[in-house]
From TrEMBL:
This is 3-phosphoshikimate 1-carboxyvinyltransferase. 3-phosphoshikimate binds at K24, S25, R29, S166, Q168, D314, K341. GO terms for molecular function: 3-phosphoshikimate 1-carboxyvinyltransferase activity. It comes from the Bacteria. Pathway: Metabolic intermediate biosynthesis; chorismate biosynthesis; chorismate from D-erythrose 4-phosphate and phosphoenolpyruvate: step 6/7. The active site is at D314. Pfam families: EPSP_synthase. It comes from Sporosarcina contaminans. NCBIfam families: aroA.
Amino acid sequence: MVGSRTVEFRKPVLKGECKVLGDKSISHRAIMLGSIAKGRTEVTGFLSGEDCLRTIEIFKQLGVYIKREGEHVWIDSPGMKNWTAPADTLYAGNSGTTARLMLGILASSNVKSVLTGDASLSKRPMKRVTGPLQKMGALIHGDDFLPLTITGSKLTAIDYELPVASAQVKSAILFAGLNAEGMTTVKEIDVTRDHTERMLAQFGANVLRSDKTVSIEGGQTLQGSKVVVPGDISSAAFFMVAAAMLEGSSVDFINVGLNPTRTGIIDVLKAMGAKVVVTDRNGDDGEPFGNVNVTADSLRGIEIGGELIPKLIDEIPIIALLSTQAKGKTVIKDAAELRVKETDRITAVTEELKKMGADIEATEDGMIIHGPTVLKGASLSSYGDHRIGMMAAIAAYVADGPVHIEDPDCIAISYPNFFEHLYQLSAVEE
Ligand code: S3P
């Protein structure tokens, strides 16, 4: 049963603090590396969103002991060489990160498994991962899509040039390389999020990095570690944009991840004219984090493309909304990857914002938006995609009437307390 929700505001002034939940990408990797490693791993700040819970369930099926109390997770693993074969299929739900990274891990494990996903994930391309893994000798059966059967086997290292800028593909190959014979090297076309590389090092692996190249020697054994997950900048981005768009607003985001491969949203907010100040920066030896203040100011259109795209790929739906409130033309290009996300985000964003009266046009690899436009209330679909659902809800802040969102429950995939924050921030009086 798919629900709906109506959200209405009268252009509130947003003030106060916002502490978003833990980073999704880092939470997945903490569970994965804690399960690959032998011994105890402790994770704090874990994101209990649906995607990351899928990753936990999968490792439990492989015989890893995992206990979770809210944002705190304890993992006791026998190490990946001692996993037990799962009795049932492994279900990745809606989570592309779970599916793609697990393919790399399972291919070099000692178990045979079948990996499945929901309707959306079963339509997303897996060949980009299974292709290079098969070159390493992986035994993966199925088409380019889930479900896939993976028989863990001995792999051989490869040198691989990524045809797309994808941290999921890079990470899958690095995980497979960790257990392969020889030195695996991955070369990127554009730098993508590097959480896997940083965390591998934290668990004791020797990872060699230079510019756009990462290498890992096979046969390294990892030891359990402690992981502190910072707030997810991709979740904070929704309220950062809201603060930037609503005159008189100023919001402090506490303990947000500031890994430079993820901070494209800050660059864009600044370039469009919002005031952004970063303070208390910390954690530069692992995952950098800090506090970010965003204050509204007059906004102007800009061009977004090239190497910046992987640093804000998940933020493009909310940047499109921001652009409708900026003066002039915004061009988003080089972002064709959006077409193979949880939904085709170029089509979804364009269609939904058009319903609100936005001047927006889809291109093959992005969008062109002219602003500013006074958006009107409308009935919008989330397409079952958490980031489209959140964009629709934030659009209600600047709309002239109520926004009705079909299937808003998918937001729990990455931001279970999103609506709580939406109302909390807008309830603060000037
Ligand atoms: C992710 C990588 C990105 C991103 C996704 C999370 C990750 O996907 O869109 O939300 O955790 O590695 P791609 O690797 O497909 O670009």
